[in-house]
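Weekly modeling sync, notes
Attendees: AB, CL, MP (scribe)

Item 1: holo prediction request
CL wants a bound-state model with 5-O-phosphono-beta-D-ribofuranose before deciding which constructs to order. AB pointed out that an apo prediction alone won't tell us much about the pocket. Agreed to run with the ligand included and paste results into these notes for async review.

Input as submitted:
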Amino acid sequence: MEQVHPLVSIIMGSDSDLPVMEEAARLLEEMHVTFEIKILSAHRTPELVKDHVSRLKDRGVRVVIAGAGGAAHLPGVIAAYTTLPVIGVPIKASISIDGWDSILSILQMPPGIPVATVGLNAARNAAILALQILSITDESYAQRLQQYRQNMKTKVVNANQKIKDLKYKYLID
Ligand code: RP5
């Protein structure tokens, strides 16, 4: 591993978000991307958020993935303290109104401080997007993404074979 610093910072509002956000960590691990994981809350530890996020760029971090549930202001607050791209993951927390509170508070940032928002609980997509951003300057990540896509393609092709194996009498192929 070349980098000794994290390229991606994964931040979430509570340890209750971890089961969802671990999907991002697993993908980054699989793709050999260095990362850190921090639990920081925009309303419970606001000064820690400011302190951590304002140092990210100098520490070599290139992309932030931020997940939160409920009235999820954490990704927006992080975006306010850095010019690094922030990818927001809305999380369906236990207090959630079906996830909509989180989706809308991350997605509907007022003009000027955007958060690139993925789908509900879609932490893996956030990690893929982070990898795509990193691959602008490092072709090796693009190659790993191509392999990842190739693996997905193989799975779909194999799934079609399973349908053929069902051997319906009236199925026209
Ligand atoms: C948010 O409130 C967190 O991101 C979490 O999704 C939600 C609930 O937090 P806990 O009460 O489980 O700590 O700040």
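Recorded for review: The radius of gyration is 19 Å.
Action items: CL to compare against the apo run; MP to circulate these notes.
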